[in-house]
Specification:
This protein is of the alpha/beta class and about 575 residues long. The protein has helices at about 85-100, 100-105, 110-130, 130-135, 140-145, 150, 285-300, 345-360, 380-390, 395-410, 445-455, 500-505, and strands at about 5-10, 15-20, 40, 60, 155-170, 185-190, 195-200, 210-220, 225, 230-235, 245, 270-275, 280, 325-335, 365-370, 375, 420, 430-435, 440, 465-470, 475-480, 515, 520-525, 540-545, 550-555, 565-570. Among the domains are: about 75-155, no CATH class; about 325-455, Collagenase (Catalytic Domain) (3-Layer(aba) Sandwich).
């Protein structure tokens, strides 16, 4: 879930004592605006937007019934917005075309080609600016299936397939300017070799990299609007494609269904869904909802709130991000560069610090071991990889080639949890490092960038800041990427910049017995959460539900000099 944090002054040397009064689980508005800035911590979530936090200055009390109203969130600010007139003009044409007879349709063909070609660049912009709207405005299958091929060729392409969904999040080098939309990349690489830039909304915004998953949507060129669910119910009257793989066994009931032959239209009596490249016939239309929920859960599983790839080896323990974290560190250069990005010693030095960071941050629950390769020369030039990024996922191509070259030397990336590629320059690598899934790309040295990018592999998102514009610490404003300076997933650095307490709970590092979860008014003491070990009987975070959608957390940061004897309030 997404988080928002706010500074709250407290007192004490080894701990912070909080007085809390609340009733009915909801905390009321403070009597007056609070003065300190608001910080937002944003690991991935369930699509719930970042809400503002209300910090208090000079007191160690959370006001009775403290509540904050959500801000007016900013809209998407793409500069290239579509001209909807061209999209509406083709919709009007489609209605006339459907109502016309064979002779009328033939006479309308040239007009349809003209309108479809005028619509195409605007629909492409719509995919990039508002993927939800693009899916809503896409041409229905029952309409397009009878249109002439030259009209259909100019329309968006329906996409439904299985492949690798890759989400990469970047961290700019110090002093490097980058906007939020430049720091998150999403790709869908289908099993048949198609490469799309994925534009998502709603539930899909929270989904991190996943291998071999079904997705659906519509695309123009490489720009794809991705639906929240890979399940699409076939429209009544839609004909099953001649080359479709049709399954006549209902997966919900296990019963045989009516057979629908290729090119035969779907009826109310023969409900069917498309998932990936399969058409599945159902015995009951209500089973569409069952499958829809199943596949949504498939996409959400092991996503935000938990690690993506690292599992403990403890018997009976299913928690993730516990045990040994095995890293392969590949140092690469290009044939037109032939300059090492760093030394083997400096790489091992950074990874030793990463090992200490994770050991202390996890309270001893996650250890790490690292293997650094000799310098590897890539099979293509840097310019070649940069040019290929226009056709495919350039970052993924570079990483795949680096793994393949390392394998020739005996370093098999499949034997590791995370593979780090250290490189100077390349596709989208000018002053930015990236992390996503089990892959990390690093453009400079130091443990902080590694702790940050490996955090994406653990399912953590950026730790952000809610910058207000209305003079209050929690009202209207904008989301500032990396604005939380106390978390390495934001702007934090050093061994004290631990992942926040919500992240630690999600990763299995901060168990329930070490967290206050009060159900009544009282005085509660919390201890420093950014220390290397937990002590029995002490509490290191404070958690209370605000309402059905959000939860308050409070954490204490004496190890971070910016917040000595102060606390941070986070929203989940």
């Amino acid at each position: 879930m997404k988080k928002i944090s706010a500074a709250l002054c407290g007192f004490g040397v080894t701990g912070l004592t909080l007085w809390l009064a609340f009733s009915g689980g909801a905390l009321p508005e403070p009597a007056s605006p609070l003065s300190r800035s608001t910080t937002a911590v944003s690991p991935p979530g369930t699509g719930i937007p970042d809400w503002p936090a209300a910090p208090s200055k000079g007191v160690a009390e959370i006001p009775a019934g403290f509540v904050v109203s959500p801000p007016a969130l900013p809209g998407k600010t793409d500069t290239a917005m579509p001209e909807m007139e061209a999209i509406y003009a083709f919709q009007e044409y489609s209605q006339r075309w459907m109502a016309a007879n064979a002779a009328g349709r033939k006479a309308m063909q040239a007009e349809g080609v003209r309108l479809a070609k005028a619509r195409r660049p605007e629909f492409k912009k719509l995919i990039m600016a508002d993927p939800r709207r693009a899916l809503e405005e896409s041409v229905p299958r029952v309409v397009r299936q009878d249109m002439p091929a030259d009209i259909v060729a100019a329309l968006e392409k329906p996409v439904s397939g299985t492949g690798n969904y890759n989400m990469y999040q970047g961290r700019p080098a110090e002093g490097q300017a980058a906007t939020a939309d430049q720091l998150t990349l999403r790709y869908f690489e289908t099993a048949t070799g198609e490469s799309y830039k994925a534009h998502v909304f709603g539930l899909m915004e929270a989904v991190i990299s996943k291998k071999d998953v079904p997705l659906r949507g519509v695309a123009v060129d490489r720009e794809m609007a991705v639906a929240e669910s890979p399940v699409r119910r076939l429209e009544t009257g839609e004909r099953v494609a001649a080359d479709a793989s049709v399954e006549a066994l209902c997966p919900v009931s296990g019963e045989e269904t009516q057979t629908v032959a290729p090119e035969e239209p779907i009826t109310e009596e023969t409900p069917a869904v498309e998932v990936g490249s399969r058409v599945i016939l159902l015995c009951n239309g209500s089973h569409v909802t069952v499958l829809d929920e199943k596949y949504k859960n498939l996409l959400q599983a092991s996503g935000p709130g938990g690690a993506g790839y690292f599992f403990s080896g403890y018997p009976g323990d299913s928690s993730e991000a516990l045990g040994n974290f095995r890293c392969l560190y590949i140092r690469i250069t290009y044939p037109d560069q032939l300059r090492a990005p760093n030394t083997e010693d400096s790489a091992y030095g950074d990874m030793r610090n990463v090992s200490r960071f994770y050991l202390e941050s996890s309270y001893g629950k996650l250890t790490s071991t690292s293997t650094v390769t000799p310098l590897i020369v890539m099979p293509h030039t840097q310019a070649w990889y940069i040019a290929k990024d226009d056709e495919v996922d350039g970052l993924g191509l570079l990483h795949g080639d680096a793994r393949a070259e390392a394998r020739k030397l005996g370093y098999d990336s499949h034997q590791f949890n995370c593979t780090i590629v250290r490189v100077n320059g390349g596709p989208r690598l000018s002053g930015i490092s990236w992390g996503g899934g089990d892959s990390v790309w690093v453009s400079w040295d130091g443990m902080d960038v590694l702790n940050h990018e490996c955090g994406h592999s653990l399912g953590r998102n950026h730790a952000n800041f809610w910058k207000t514009t209305d003079g209050t610490p929690y009202g209207d404003g904008t989301n500032e990427e990396y604005g939380n300076s106390f978390d390495v997933m934001g702007g934090g650095s050093g061994f004290g910049a631990h992942y926040n307490s919500i992240s630690k709970r999600a990763l299995g590092w901060l168990p329930d017995p070490y967290v206050h979860k009060p159900a009544a008014n009282g005085v509660y003491r919390i201890h420093a959460y950014d220390q290397p070990q937990l002590q029995e009987g002490q509490r290191y975070a404070f958690r209370v539900a605000k309402d059905s959608a959000r939860t308050y957390y409070v954490e204490y940061h004496p190890a971070n000099s910016h917040l000595t004897d102060s606390a941070v309030v986070l929203y989940s």
